[in-house]
Design a protein that fits this description.
The chain has 256 residues and is mainly alpha-helical. The chain contains 11 helices and 2 strands, in the order H-H-H-E-E-H-H-H-H-H-H-H-H. It is elongated. Transcriptional repressor for the pyruvate dehydrogenase complex genes aceEF and lpd. It comes from Thauera mechernichensis.
Length: 256
């Protein structure tokens, strides 16, 4: 048998692999600017022409974009499956809001499980900072906006997804991030009028989830994440039912 000669890989292909890995693992995010060619060449230990060739190929693939005089960026369209106007459509539909919570149930349970197993020290530091932000918002009660609280909550769940070290889970969460954040804000708006007991319960659930991940109790983390979303769904359902009962009683009174 005559062996086929092996082809030597070009340096540009190795650079492409490195950059693609950074994008896939979430170290380079949509819209993020890459370092200058000179800096990349120094970091990779290669020539600038090799870096330039790699960047051009990645631009051709749609992973990067180039702005004249502004540098090279990770494409902002990556993971954009659920961008406006789909966000608006889903946000206005009560059934779609319920569907989103059910979807989060599956997705975030898995993220919590793998985060507990795989979180590195930098992941744990980011998760701690994200939880502190959530806790601060809950403890400030009437002195924090729904938008700020929703953003803190959503970033906490994103930090868990990043700590899962599962590229598919992470990029699914990122593609849904705007929708997730708005869903959290909507949920908070529906639960705030119910009183401090609800807020205390939600904070306790976040704290319990955080500790399970930090203690590397993977199965507990999955169950706690799912139980948290079950609780949110139950409270919102009861809120909607109560609103319907009040409206029905008011209609009867008006026609009496």
């Amino acid at each position: 048998m005559k062996a086929t000669p092996l082809q030597q890989r070009r340096l540009a292909d190795d650079i492409i692999d490195r950059i693609e890995t950074l994008i896939l693992e979430g170290s380079l995010r949509p819209g993020e600017r890459l370092p200058a060619e000179r800096t990349l060449a120094e970091q990779f230990g290669v020539s600038r022409p090799s870096v330039r060739e790699a960047l051009q190929k990645l631009i051709a693939r749609g992973l990067l974009t180039s702005r004249h005089g502004g540098g090279t960026f990770v494409s902002e369209t990556l993971g954009s499956s659920f961008r406006d106007p789909m966000n608006d459509l889903l946000e206005r539909n009560p059934e779609a809001q319920r569907d989103l919570i059910e979807f989060r149930h599956t997705l975030e349970g898995s993220c919590a499980y793998y985060a507990a197993l795989r979180a590195t020290e930098p992941d744990r530091e980011r998760l701690s900072a994200a939880f502190e932000r959530v806790q601060d918002c809950y403890l400030r009660k009437g002195r924090v906006s729904r938008a700020e609280e929703g953003a803190a909550d959503a970033h906490f769940h994103l930090a868990i997804a990043e700590a899962s070290h599962n590229a598919v889970l992470l990029h699914t969460i990122r593609s849904l991030f705007d929708l997730l954040e708005r869903n959290v804000v909507t949920n908070i708006g529906g639960m705030i009028p119910l009183g401090s007991d609800i807020r205390d319960a939600l904070l306790d659930q976040h704290r319990t989830l955080y500790r399970a991940i930090m203690d590397r109790r993977a199965e507990d983390a999955r169950q706690i994440a799912c139980a948290h979303l079950d609780y949110v769904q139950e409270v919102l359902a009861e809120t909607r039912d109560e609103a319907q009962r009040v409206a029905r009683a008011q209609r009867r009174q008006a026609t009496a």
